[in-house]
Amino acid sequence: MTTHPLKITGTHLADGRELIYFDDSADVLSGEVTRELTDPRDLPGSVTESEMRRDPLTGEWITYAAHRSNRTFMPPANENPLAPATPGHLPTEIPSTDYDVVVFENRFPSFSTRIAMPENPDDYDWQVDGEEIFLRRPAKARCEVVCFTPDSSKSFRDLPLSRIRTVIEAWRHRTEALSAIDGVIQVAPFENRGEEIGVTLQHPHGQIYSYPFVPPRSQRILEQAAAHRTATGRDLFDDILDAERRSGERIITETPHFTVFVPAAAKWPVEVMVVPNRAVGDFTGLTDEELDELPALLKHLYSAVDRYFEGVERTPYIAAWNQMPVQDRLTGEQERLRGEGRLHLQLFSLMRSPNRMKFLAGSESALGAWISDTTPERIAGRFREIWEDEQ
């Protein structure tokens, strides 16, 4: 077991948004180097009008954040808002000239705690057009950006193990903090990478969304897990891992604390999951031993993803951590889902062959009926080839 030295320094940007440095460098830990805490920009206060509406046909909440249509899109290198501040260049979101890992509130958030509301909450229109069937709510939660490195040419796979551990510590720290926000139900760290995925900034970064509801995929997982426990008395994730081990067809690797495998019903052209071998709800529940083991496992996995397709240097992907909801916030029908679910990473790509993307057309987008162009066993076989080559 090791202890990961870390210095956490918080400040606020010119418009009031919070920014936090997570530093593991020796010169910062010793106090020889300090981070700049003052944002020199003249920015208006950060206020949004995000709202949610409930679809009466599906029961799902849809979020509307019209201000995001004007967010920064693929700026030139000298206007990169996620780079450290450089003398002679435009100020960025990070006031310091260097950083290890930094987290800050998104300037163009989908969910925000700074939503323009009437002075009297009773004046808020909780229904669309006054119709009871169309429920409306303020999209009150928080969205954050996580910059993995100051070097815009790098990727998550390129980070040293100590820096990946710092990113994990940031995820853990922010999971605890965001879960404490009134009304937040679930916290989800994720990364989008690649123009094909739709990223608007090329700098290596991820995001952390907190939601004032349980997102649909998480809701379905909780419901399946609860139904499985009712029917069998057992944990769904334990039974899935046991079944995958008995089969052996889709497991990529196992460690003392984690299993990496392609799900038996994988949807995406490339898809892999990382699941703790014991029931863990979120990052705050991981032990020191699990935290020590995870960086090397993730570095190996992300490197393998970038070798999956011949001739593709950087595979576009989405890497999303699914965490259990804040347990004491589940009410009504959801109370039966308390204690279900498990922390896990779902990493997938829409690329179906070198430089060719899978488009979600009629069956997938309109009806939600998925059709795959490959098989989970083929995906796992390719991953095992790559994995063994890197040993």
From TrEMBL:
InterPro entries: GalP_UDPtransf1, GalP_UDPtransf1_His-AS, GalP_Utransf_C, GalP_Utransf_N, HIT-like_sf
TM spans (from-to): none
Keyword field: Carbohydrate metabolism, Galactose metabolism, Metal-binding, Nucleotidyltransferase, Transferase, Zinc
Source superkingdom: Bacteria
Protein name from the UniProt record: Galactose-1-phosphate uridylyltransferase
Record-listed E.C. numbers: 2.7.7.12
Native source species: Corynebacterium variabile
Source organism phylogeny: Bacteria, Bacillati, Actinomycetota, Actinomycetes, Mycobacteriales
Catalytic residues (UniProt): H205 (tele-ump-histidine intermediate)
One GO term of the biological process aspect: galactose catabolic process via UDP-galactose, Leloir pathway
Domain called Galactose-1-phosphate uridyl transferase C-terminal: residue spans: 229-386
Keyword Metal-binding annotated: yes
Gene Ontology cellular component list: cytoplasm
The Galactose-1-phosphate uridyl transferase N-terminal domain, residue ranges: 50-215
Catalytic activity: alpha-D-galactose 1-phosphate + UDP-alpha-D-glucose = alpha-D-glucose 1-phosphate + UDP-alpha-D-galactose
